[in-house]
Structures are given as C-alpha cells and as structure tokens.
C-alpha cells in the first residue's frame, strides 16, 4: 500500500542567498557559532567546577560532612535568591533534611565523601 501526495502540497523551501554580502555574513556567523559551541564544550560547566570546590573543601578538612551538605544546598538553591527569605529557608531546610534521610541521597553522599550524613537536630 503506497502513501500518495506526501510532500507534494508542501510550501516551497526558501533557497539560501549566495550572492551579495548577506550570504557571506550568514556563513561567517555559522562558523563563529560553531567555534563558540566547541569552546564551551571544551571547558566544564560552572556547576561541575562548583561541585569540585565543595568536594575539595571537604577532602582538605576545611568542612565536615554537615558543612559539605550545607555547601551543596547553597549550590542547589543559588538560583532561587529572588524568593522571599521565608520560602527560601523552608526549601533549604527541606532539601538539607532530604539529603540526610533519603536512602538514595545518603548513598550518593557516602559515595562522594565516604561518610554518612546525620539528620539535623533542629526542625
């Protein structure tokens, strides 16, 4: 069974401009964006660098496991700074408690630090 008329009534596709300065400008822009994307792919994202900073601070002894979790919560909620302080504190507290009690997250913390976080006493 054949399917008829596929693509026969489609609108024509515009042909790229090749003559004049606009055609060369588009090609230059395409190559520039390709180089920019390659450069961005070559360096790690800021979140990866921040994760290494928190882990290095833990490994060097600057912070304990609880401090490491606090750094990770700060990192995870940094983009929420425009929220009212009460809401932000509630989110941070819930996230911090979850990191210390959720079995899957506790396993991730143990894999990263070699230690198990203790649930917070306040709450």
Descriptive notes:
With 123 residues, the protein is an all-alpha fold. The chain has a domain at 47-113. Helices cover 63% and strands 0% of the residues. The protein has five helices and no strands. The N and C termini lie far apart (68 Å).
Brief overview, please?
This protein has helices spanning about 20-40, 45-60, 65-75, 85-100, 105-115.
Radius of gyration: 26 Å
Count up the helices.
5
Number of strands: 0
Fraction of helical residues: 55-70%
- Our estimate of the beta-strand percent is under 5%
Distance between the termini: 68 Å
Class based on secondary structure composition and strand pairing: mainly alpha
- Describe the global form: elongated
- Give the mean pLDDT: 75
Helix/strand order: HHHHH
Low-confidence stretches: none
Largest sheet: none
Keywords:
single chain, 123 residues, mainly alpha, 5 helices
Topology:
Elements: H1 21-42, H2 46-59, H3 65-77, H4 85-101, H5 103-113
